Amino acid sequence: MVLVVLAAGLLYATPNLYGRDPAIQITGARGASADLAVLDKINIVLKDNKIETKSAVLENDQVLVRFKNVEAQLQAQDLLRDSLGDGYITAINMSPSTPQWLKSLGGSPMKLGLDLSGGVHFTMEVDMKTAIENSLEQMDQDFRSDLREQKIRYKTVRRVAGADEIQILLRDQETKDQAERFLKDRYRDLLFVDDRSNEFGLVASMTEQKLKATRDYAIKQNETIIRNRVNQIGVAEPNVQRQGAERIIVQLPGIQDTARAKEILGATATLEFREVDESADVRDAVAGRVPPGSEIIMARQGYPVLLKKNLILAGSHITGAQSGNDEYQRPQVNISLDSKGGSKMAAYTKNAIGKRMATVFTEYKPSGKVDENGKALPPIKVEEVINVATIQARLGRSFRITGIDNPAEAHNLSMLLRAGALVAPIQIVEERTVGPSLGAENIEKGFTAVALGFIFVLVLMLLYYKAFGLVANLALAANLVLIVGVMSLIPDAALTLPGIAGIVLTVGMAVDANVLIFERIREELEDGRSPQQAIHHGYDSAFSTIFDANITTLIAAVILFAVGTGPIAGFAVTLAIGIVTSMFTAIIGTRAVVNLVWGGKRLDKLSI
């Protein structure tokens, strides 16, 4: 058993010996695939500019080019991006050099954290005020549609100025009672009270539980969407996690193109579908006579459009988006909706044939300002009409939008819509770039610390416990191999600088079990037991003490991992793995070796 475990640990630790190469990954944009023609063009561009490569291969419809150093990688990225154009995405990363035979067995090197591999770190803050505003707007529309469906006649449903409340005015006491019963039953997480300013009015507000749920939903959904966007960029080994009540941490190892990362991660683009208000002249609205419930939004071409404030459909119902060209070779985006969105669109367009519907592009841009406490001010909402079309037939779950300037913009819009619209805008409040040279220095210093700790422990154990010290040293070496092997097998585990500190600590702790066992064996020998009896009682008697000591440390490591983030979690991972592997090697492994060497023999003394 010991040999099988050690062989497996050694096998899966081996990929870490091969290192990583600076690489560029080229994939097709807008659903296209890289082919042999693209590979040939890449080779020609790199050869003409005298950039040396280790290899360039076409795999799974993408090209992976490996370089000898980071300087050549960065130089090649600019050249390839210019020569290939918008039709292809060039993403830089550090690609493992694992041989194919190891890959076929599931072997891969440990993931490296940002502090070791280099890359960018963003701290992003979710605008909770806008999240609550969006939730209230959705409530406003839901109240209207629900009351209409129940055929409950109301005067108006509107937001209360300066408060997070919605006012519902009914026509008489009977409809008020009917509406109150229906709404309280349907929206049990909302609070409904009588309106003091109107006899037949209700005021709806969020309970504390609803507010908390709205904030949690905003964080969780944005975290998921950001993770989807990271996947769109093509970053290997990203780290996206929540920090506190309003922030999300994004770490992109191996990425030096911060501008591209910020553009994709921080973008809050979404679409809204609104009805064009044709009850009034646009010129009168521009002059200040805007009808109630309507507003003016400028079209991308520069002219004003009068739209109703109520949404036909929000971008949150979009499940798919694909850029392409229409029959006149103009850019377009094909939209797919979820079942609820398809039902809403079908219900509206059924009775709206001949009316005009506008597609509104909404984006939140950072204000670049902070308040007196240093907190970023809410972003600025920017809206523009990108398309106005006459509804020719009843629409369903699939349709298209046009009016987009160029294919690159259509591709970016479709990519953002596929990843999902952010529930609330986010702002990048902190940005750090870690260069690969700093990462290499951290790795070198970290492994120097591990090596020095390992050597000092080896020498001490060998001098103090002699032959048994050699057995403990073999177990310690096996423990390091197993830690690396297990770390390489866990998909979500990444080695960080604090993680290396955890390994250094484990090196010192790993011999604790052997010290307890060997000291107990010495005591048994001093009490007059034979060497065989001393070995047997030494291992059996020390086991409970070793188990208790390690299990309490393991519990602490698990708690650190569960509640900690970033460096704390990185430290906890290696510490927990090290505790488990050290118990195996120090107790089972050393006992197997001791029994193999000294077991079943007549001995007068032990080299301990």
From TrEMBL:
It is found in: Cell membrane. The keyword Membrane applies. Residues 219-278 form the Protein translocase subunit SecDF P1 domain. Residues 1-91 form the SecD export protein N-terminal TM domain. InterPro entries: Acrflvin-R, SecD, SecD-TM, SecD/SecF_arch_bac, SecD/SecF_CS, SecD_1st, SecD_SecF_C, SecD_SecF_C_bact. Keywords: Cell membrane, Membrane, Protein transport, Translocation, Transmembrane, Transmembrane helix, Transport. One of its GO terms (biological process) is protein transport by the Sec complex. The chain crosses the membrane at residues 446-465, 470-490, 496-518, 539-562, 568-598. It is a multi-pass membrane protein. GO terms for cellular component: plasma membrane. SUPFAM superfamilies: Multidrug efflux transporter AcrB transmembrane domain. One of its GO terms (molecular function) is protein-transporting ATPase activity. Pfam families: Sec_GG (PF07549), SecD-TM1 (PF13721), SecD_1st (PF21760), SecD_SecF_C (PF02355), SecDF_P1_head (PF22599). Residues 426-588 form the Protein export membrane protein SecD/SecF C-terminal domain. Residues 300-424 form the SecDF P1 head subdomain domain. Belongs to the SecD/SecF family. SecD subfamily. Forms a complex with SecF. Part of the essential Sec protein translocation apparatus which comprises SecA, SecYEG and auxiliary proteins SecDF-YajC and YidC. Part of the Sec protein translocase complex. Interacts with the SecYEG preprotein conducting channel. SecDF uses the proton motive force (PMF) to complete protein translocation after the ATP-dependent function of SecA. NCBIfam families: 2A0604s01, secD. This is Protein translocase subunit SecD. It comes from Pseudoalteromonas tunicata D2. The gene is secD.
